[in-house]
Design goal:
The complex is a heterodimer of chains A (253) and B (267).
Chain A (H helix, E strand, L loop, with lengths): L6 E10 L2 E11 L4 E5 L6 H9 L6 E6 L4 E4 L11 H11 L4 H14 L15 H13 L5 E5 L7 H18 L2 E6 L2 H7 L2 E5 L6 E6 L13 H27 L1
Parallel strand pairs in A: 3-7, 3-8, 5-6, 6-7
Antiparallel strand pairs in A: 1-2, 1-4, 8-9
Helix pairs in contact in A: 2-3, 2-4, 3-4, 6-7
Chain B lengths: L6 H35 L10 H10 L1 H35 L1 H16 L2 H12 L3 H25 L3 H9 L4 H39 L8 H10 L3 H34 L1
Helix pairs in contact in B: 2-10, 3-4, 3-6, 3-8, 3-9, 3-10, 4-6, 5-6, 5-8, 6-8, 8-9, 8-10, 9-10
The chains are: A alpha/beta (253), B mainly alpha (267).
């Protein structure tokens, strides 16, 4: 067994000119695990994800990530409007020089994983919001990454679609044991998907609570289970306390 | 017989399409009538202003040279446009790959825009001789700048979020150009090509004034000059009108092609 974590974040801070956005954040994510980062919007949790994904550099501290590559799923689907769903999903492979045939074949597998096979020849404008997000997820999965970084992927979706996609994401994670790091502002979503919730303070982002979620399989009824509700309450309370403390600090200053 | 409900609206749509096609023709008819009225009312000499009928007769009496001339000019314009399109897109693409190269070369392409074609055309004769190559070069020179300018701005218009995605996927510069910047630029490139199509036929006629060869296969520009020299203003009118028609046809073809191309982008 490999005991080294898939992602190791140590004392990471990020400073943009005079503003500190991330303040000495440390956590480990085990290989095959799933952690959710929860915090008020604009607190800097996306910056943490971007630094892990290599889109940004920490000012101090270090980040180690498992070899084999991480795939990023952005808040927006970011599909190329002139390509079909199939070719959008095949894009990461095509950019690595995989032949069109092989790339498309592997893209089809990935599209099947997110249950979009029927729609593979449509262009993004012909897809619904939920389908676009699935497509974006399929594109992230196509290169078989070890680590999946999700940046509020569901935030633009309606409640029903969101639940549906959360359930499928959980299923994907349970079946394929991909390491997932999820940024979200929905506490129930975090509790449903992750093994552990890290609650962040308002900017600069600091970890104020680490809350483990109940283990075991989740089905659709898990959303309303009492164990999950306790987790949601604990995380929400930690989040509200952090926001209140921040507001008090501002008033004093 | 059963009549569908939308029979009447679709009839109306037909009428509307017909009206849309007829109204520019009606405007042309009005202009022709006005032209004829001026000629008759002010008793203008035919070598200054021939009547519409005289112009029509000049064409009908001897259509062959005009048809050949139109074909010659259209061919030159098409070649000039093609060269400008390919060279313009390639040059703009090379420029867009490096900021430094762009900053040093772009002013030079501006020079192409600023230089008066009539002043350069004699040089083209010196370098390329009389005839088609110089005429094509003249058409290409005037029409290349809008292609370069529009392609450049289009290549720069790629969505920053998608650029970040390509960056994350470690796409090289050339791949990013081919798979992201160029497709993003298609709408602007098409705009540039439309402008270039109009300019190419102007460049062709101007080139023919200076580098055109007379005789059996004289192009429209040369027919204009011969008409002037022989005081056949009616023939000048025919050639000018045909030159405008050639411009329309080139412009129309490019417009049609670009619409087909854009359907995919704007869908």
């Amino acid at each position: 067994m490999n005991d080294r974590p898939a992602i190791a974040v140590q004392e990471v801070s990020r400073q943009f000119r005079d503003t500190r956005v991330v303040d000495r954040v440390s956590f480990d994510l085990r290989s095959g695990g799933c952690i959710a980062l929860v915090g008020p919007s604009g607190c800097g949790k996306t910056t943490i994800l971007r630094m892990i994904g290599g889109l940004d550099e920490p000012s101090t501290g270090s980040i180690a990530i498992e070899e084999g590559g991480a795939a990023f799923v952005f808040q927006e689907p970011r599909l190329l409007p002139w390509l079909t769903l199939l070719d959008n999903v095949a894009l990461p492979l095509r950019l690595r020089g995989v032949s069109k045939r092989d790339a498309r074949a592997r893209a089809m597998d990935s599209i099947a994983m997110v249950k979009l096979s029927e729609a593979c020849h449509r262009t993004p404008t012909q897809l619904s919001g939920g389908m676009r997000m699935r497509a974006s997820l399929a594109r992230a999965l196509v290169a078989r990454p070890r680590v999946l970084l999700l940046d509020e992927p569901m935030s633009s979706l309606d409640e029903v679609t969101r639940h549906e996609l959360d359930e499928e994401l959980r299923e994907l994670w349970e079946r394929h044991r991909i390491t997932i790091l999820l940024v979200t502002h929905s506490v129930p979503e975090a509790a449903y998907l992750a093994e552990e919730i890290l609650v962040f303070s308002p900017r600069p982002a600091r970890i104020v609570a680490r809350i483990p979620t109940p283990s075991g399989n989740r089905d659709a009824s898990a959303w309303t289970s009492s164990a999950l509700n306790d987790t949601v309450r604990a995380a929400s309370e930690a989040l509200l306390a952090a926001i209140a403390a921040d507001a008090r600090g501002r008033k004093l200053a | 017989m059963k009549r569908t409900r939308d029979a009447i609206p679709s009839n109306n749509a037909w009428m509307q399409a017909l009206l849309a096609a007829l109204s520019p023709l009606a405007t042309i008819a009005v202009v022709v009538v006005l032209w004829w009225c001026c000629k008759v009312l002010f008793e203008i000499e035919s070598f200054i202003l021939p009547s519409p009928f005289e112009v029509a007769r000049a064409f009908a009496d001897d259509p062959r040279p005009f048809l050949i001339g139109s074909l010659e000019s259209a061919t030159s314009a098409a070649f000039g446009f093609g060269i400008a399109a390919i060279a313009g897109i390639l040059l703009a693409s090379v420029l867009s790959l490096s900021r430094r190269v762009e900053r040093s070369v772009y002013p030079l392409t501006l020079f192409f825009q600023m230089v008066p074609l009539i002043a350069v055309a004699p040089l083209l004769v010196v370098w390329l001789g009389y005839g088609r190559p110089a005429i094509i070069a003249s058409a290409a020179i005037v029409s290349v700048f809008p292609v370069i300018a529009n392609t450049l701005s289009g290549l720069r218009s790629a969505d920053p979020q998608l650029l970040e995605l390509f960056n994350l996927l470690r796409a090289g510069r050339v791949r990013t150009w081919w798979s992201l910047a160029l497709p993003s630029a298609v709408p602007s490139i098409v705009t540039g090509l439309r402008i270039a199509a109009g300019l190419a036929s102007i460049g062709t006629i101007a080139g023919e004034f200076i580098a055109g060869i007379g005789g059996e296969r004289a192009p429209l520009g040369v027919l204009v000059m011969t008409g002037l020299r022989t005081f056949r203003t009616d023939r000048v009118f025919v050639a000018v009108l045909l030159a405008a028609l050639v411009g329309f046809v080139v412009f129309g073809c490019v417009g049609l092609l670009s619409r087909l191309l854009l359907r995919r982008w704007l869908a």
